[in-house]
Write a structure and sequence with these properties.
The complex is a heterodimer of chains A (406) and B (116). Chain A has 406 residues and is mainly alpha-helical. Chain A contains 20 helices and no strands. Among the domains of chain A are: 94 residues; 66 residues, Methane Monooxygenase Hydroxylase, Chain G, domain 1 (Up-down Bundle). In chain A, 40% of the residues are buried. Chain B has 116 residues and is of the alpha+beta class. Chain B has one domain: Alpha-Beta Plaits (2-Layer Sandwich), CATH 3.30.70.1060. Chain B starts with a strand and ends in a 6-residue tail after the last strand. The chains are: A mainly alpha (406), B alpha+beta (116). At the A-B interface, loops of A face helix 2 of B.
């Protein structure tokens, strides 16, 4: 019998499935959430004492359904109406495909493009991730009351505007799946940007995003976007142990202790990149290509031994998919490693439209530094710092500024 | 089935003028193509013809009228459709075929039906 964390995880994951099914049979995410939450709390109380039931999901579903019926009756009484004695029967014996489809419906509804991106992120964490409203608020650095309001409004919009609870049809699937991936990727970045000393709930957002990406890849194992996203997150997350030094300062990729990278995550990530790319050789998925770049880094024994030709080629593929100044900037960084600073500087200076982007200035500063132009480098570091970055990032740039020859 | 209103925001012009005949034709084509879900709709005169009405000091107070629309915006409310659709996805798909969608914007709003 699972105990401790494993048991809590089992309850939480089955709780999400129960929520997904109840949302379908009751037609209300809000009601389903309330009822599923109640069942999860009861399971957390009784299972450690009485043992895990033979069919955990059925237990949770029966408990949650009872609660849902109670809520419906209570609200009907309050409104002075006769309660419909709907019992939502039968759902506990649903075959796995139905449960899978319910989860997908929930994923696509929480990440519906008619909801704002911040509402999608909040809903995904609350409803799919099973985090409490307080945890979601802390994770996203928003006051709890604001987060509660945001979640209520999002669920209200789903109900009032009639956002359907369904998996999009095939012709819309690629675009909608990209939307889901964007939401999960944003959650990952929130946690990744948290840095040292940050609230652990916030740091745990990376793990939460990996969990959601894994769920998506399990639900849609043939979709390159789902595979590519999971690969990308795993390969980034693999560097977690080496990203910060003892004092919590950020360590650049070039200086990271690669022995501390998570080899299991890298292995899984690299394998997933291959699967994602093989599915669409003619037009690879953007996440899969980004994951391929991350894989080049993950597989290099040292920064100096990185296969820069491969990295640059993948950036070319990414640019062919969607030309974007930030991708051009990252490509230029790889070119600097292969062809030297002057070649990269010419590329960086040729990218327009990034004057308000601190990393454009920071990259220029590094290249000017390397190229032996300390005055120009100093000006560029200062521009980058002035544009507003997080504390650890500013600290890093100040250190680099201090390294300049006088 | 739920109802939605598609509020059409586009150039603030007099659509009855012959120079807009082409656009008017596009709208009648849309109207025919979407006939199955359309439950009504109107084109409005430009906002120069609008009168905004307020009653000051509560119900029964003085009627104050101002010349012009409630809000001045770059694109103005120039018409609307009422649509009956299965869900928001269908309503959005229909709204995306209204010519203003690529020549302005269309706001889709669900209708609140009392006693439904």
């Amino acid at each position: 019998m699972p105990t401790g964390d494993a048991l809590a995880r089992l309850i939480r994951e089955e709780g999400t499935r129960v929520l997904a099914t109840l949302a379908r049979v009751t037609g209300s995410i809000d009601l389903a959430e309330d009822a599923a939450q109640d069942a999860v709390v009861r399971a957390l109380e009784t299972w450690p004492r009485d043992g895990v039931p033979d069919n955990p999901r059925a237990w949770l579903l029966v408990t949650a359904r009872r609660r849902a019926v109670d809520i419906i009756r209570r609200e009907a009484r309050r409104a002075g109406k006769e309660a419909e004695a709907t019992m939502f029967a039968g759902a506990e014996s649903d075959p796995p495909e139905v449960v899978r489809d319910d989860l997908l419906r929930l994923v696509f509804t929480c990440c519906h493009p008619a909801l704002s991106l911040e509402a999608q992120v909040a809903l995904a964490l609350r409803t799919l991730g099973g985090l409490s409203t307080a945890e979601v608020a802390r994770g996203l650095l928003v006051p709890e009351a604001t987060m509660a309001k945001r979640l209520t409004r999002a669920k209200q919009k789903i109900a009032q505007a009639g956002i359907p609870y369904r998996v999009p049809p095939a012709d819309q699937l690629p675009a909608r799946l990209t939307g889901v991936a964007t939401t999960i990727y944003l959650i990952f970045n929130e946690g990744y940007a948290a840095g040292a000393g940050a609230d652990l709930v916030r740091v745990a957002l990376t793990a939460e995003a990996v969990r959601l990406a894994r769920l998506l890849a399990e639900l849609m194992p043939d979709e390159p976007t789902a595979l590519g996203l999971l690969a990308l997150l795993l390969l980034h997350d693999a560097r977690r142990g080496a990203r910060l030094d003892g004092s919590g300062a950020q360590v650049l990729l070039a200086d990271q202790d690669r022995a501390r990278w998570d080899q299991e995550a890298i292995k899984e990530g690299v394998e997933l990149v291959g699967r994602a790319l093989r599915r669409t050789p003619d037009r690879p998925d953007g996440y899969a290509v980004q994951a391929a770049i991350a894989a080049c880094h993950a597989l290099a024994p040292s920064y100096a031994e990185t296969n820069w030709d491969a990295v640059i080629s993948w950036y070319d593929v990414l640019l062919a998919l969607r030309d974007n100044p930030v991708v051009r900037l990252n490509r230029a960084v790889a070119v600097a490693e292969r062809d030297g600073a002057p070649a990269a500087l010419a590329l960086v200076d040729g990218i327009g439209g990034l004057d308000s982007y601190p990393w454009w200035h920071a990259t220029r500063a590094e290249l000017l530094h390397r190229d032996g132009q300390p005055d120009a480098a100093k000006a560029a570091y200062e521009r980058a710092i002035a544009l507003g970055l997080s504390e650890p990032q500013v600290a890093h740039l100040r250190r680099r500024l201090a390294d300049l020859p006088r | 089935m739920p109802k939605y209103v598609a509020l059409i925001y586009s150039a603030d012009v007099d659509w009855s003028q012959p120079e807009f005949a082409e656009v008017t034709k596009d709208y009648s084509e849309f109207g025919e193509a979407a006939a199955a879900v359309l439950r009504g709709g109107q084109v409005l005169y430009p906002t120069t013809s609008a009168t905004t009405v307020r009653v000051s000091g509560g119900k029964g107070g003085d009627v104050v009228t101002t010349d012009g629309p409630y809000a001045e915006t770059k694109e103005a409310l120039t018409g609307f459709y009422i649509m009956e659709c299965a869900d928001l996805d269908e309503a959005v798909a229909v709204a995306a075929k209204i010519p203003a969608a690529w020549d302005g914007a269309v706001e889709v709003r669900p209708v609140l039906e009392f006693g439904a």
